[in-house]
Amino acid sequence: MSTPRRVVVVGAGMAAVRLADGLAGRAQVTLLGEEPHPPYNRILLSAVLEGTHAVDDISLRVPDHVDVRLGARAAQIHRAEREVELVDGRRVPYDTLVLATGSIPTLPPIRGLVRVDGRLDERVHAFRSLDDCLRLDAAVPGARAAVVVGGGLLGLQVARALSVRGLDTEVVEGGEHLLRSQVDGKAGRILARDLRRLGTTVYTGARAVRLTDEGLVLDNGFTLDTDLVVLTSGGRPSTALARRAGLTVRRGVVVDDGLASVDDPVVHAIGDCAEHGGRTTGFVPPAWEQAGILADRLAGSRATYAGSRTVARLRASGLDVAVLGDPEHIGGDVVEVTNPVLGSHRKLVVRDGVIVGATLVGDLSQIGLITQYYDRGTVLAQTEPGALLMAERPSRPSTLPDDAEVCACAGVTAGRVRACTSLEDVRASTHATTGCGGCADSVRSLLASRTLEGITP
Ligand SMILES: Cc1cc2nc3c(=O)[nH]c(=O)nc-3n(C[C@H](O)[C@H](O)[C@H](O)COP(=O)(O)OP(=O)(O)OC[C@H]3O[C@@H](n4cnc5c(N)ncnc54)[C@H](O)[C@@H]3O)c2cc1C
């Protein structure tokens, strides 16, 4: 495959910027972003809401050569002419087109969210974009109480941020426990306890059904008196543009192992909007993995995408959660330790000695080793899974073997961090610490131990 001259990317989010970075110096890249803001790290929106990060802190670094057009919403793709038409009628020609349109929030079926004039009730907020975040941020000082609808990863992030900002915060989750897509009831209950300890009320097994002047009415008869309602429970891949262009869309834009549309070899899709092997993703690690592979392919390599392992990590103050694979649905022997006193629940699903899924709540000290065993399919001795879970004391990152993964977002190992000379070098050459930031302490510790080794005679 020869290097494309013009790569046009619809979307200027997490996947698009990673792709542009991978194509640096290898193609002429244009990002078309509908949002008015320069590209930013979406994972850190809750940190902006919480007040620990300024908007400037979450900007994504875009390579110099990239033409980033902001406020540029793509309205149509003219595949025969190989042009993208923007809402203002301007056309942008491409040799290769990449759809990285992400996902969009959906409204849950709650009566009263939308007023008779068709606008959202002013108490109601989505939390997907920087504009959503800034609007909610502006509403916080005048508010006393908030209800977060949805007890998933996003809901817990937002609830923690609002609680840290001093609001009486309640979470409403229709399922029987929090994080029901990722963890079991025991883990969900530990999390609910943690949230309550941190001052947030949690209602599980309860659905919000109506928003009235008195507040948000639940199907269990409660009415929650609130100034703000934040919707975090629904979202789906943003595929309208692809559908209009006649591309095959199921849940996401259907792509093959080369991340190309199954209908058009010069149109690709990556990130939340793409569907590969019957699966859509919704997390940064697969979006970045796809972007890296596509960048290599567009530069001439024959790399293929075989699907990503699922790693979910919660980024929220005072709550630590990591889930590897799909521990609730994959079969195997379950080895678990629950310690409600310490607020931890750790579970490994083991098949033929291999860890095929894991849930860690409240204690992520063994995450590096467990991820390494999981990734490599290491066959463990009978006593090892239990021993891994019984260790209450953190294992030091500096003792991790070189091939242990440290940064789940960018898939970076301890060895790659050790090969760097500084935190700046780590960020620029591996992208570790630039996603959720959960690996920052481990990276610092690895760099520090490297420095110490360097001065040891
Ligand atoms: C608040 C929040 C917290 C999150 N936290 C985590 C986390 O802790 N860990 C994790 O792994 N994942 C997290 N996610 C999910 C993660 O952000 C996404 O998986 C990731 O951003 C996907 O990247 P993407 O490029 O596919 O989509 P996005 O980053 O959403 O970018 C898509 C961009 O395309 C633009 N766009 C859409 N249509 C058009 C069009 N027609 N024309 C022009 N532009 C268009 C959109 O406006 C958007 O800017 C979080 C998401 C949110 C909202």
Describe this structure in words.
With about 450 residues, the protein is an alpha/beta fold. The protein folds into 4 domains: about 5-105 and about 235-300, FAD/NAD(P)-binding domain (3-Layer(bba) Sandwich), CATH 3.50.50.60; about 125-235, FAD/NAD(P)-binding domain; about 325-395, 2-Layer Sandwich (Enolase-like, domain 1); about 400-455, Arc Repressor Mutant, subunit A (Orthogonal Bundle). Helices cover about 25% and strands about 25% of the residues. The chain contains 12 helices and 27 strands. The chain has helices at about 15-20, 45-50, 130-140, 155-165, 185-195, 240-245, 285-300, 365-375, 385-390, 415-420, 425-430, 440-455; strands at about 5-10, 30, 65-70, 75-80, 85, 90-95, 95-100, 105, 125, 145-150, 170-175, 200-205, 210, 215-220, 225, 230, 235, 255, 265-270, 275, 310-315, 320-325, 335-340, 345-350, 355-360, 405, 410-415. The strands form 8 sheets. A 5-stranded parallel β-sheet has the order 3-2-1-7-19, with helices on one face. Strands 9-16-10-11-12 form a 5-stranded parallel β-sheet, covered by helices on one side. A 5-stranded antiparallel β-sheet has the order 21-22-25-24-23, sandwiched between helices. Helix 1 (about 15-20) runs parallel beside helix 7 (about 285-300). It is globular. The N and C termini lie far apart (about 50 Å). The model has no long low-confidence stretch (mean pLDDT about 90). The protein binds flavin-adenine dinucleotide. Flavin-adenine dinucleotide binds near residues 16, 33, 154, 273 and 315.
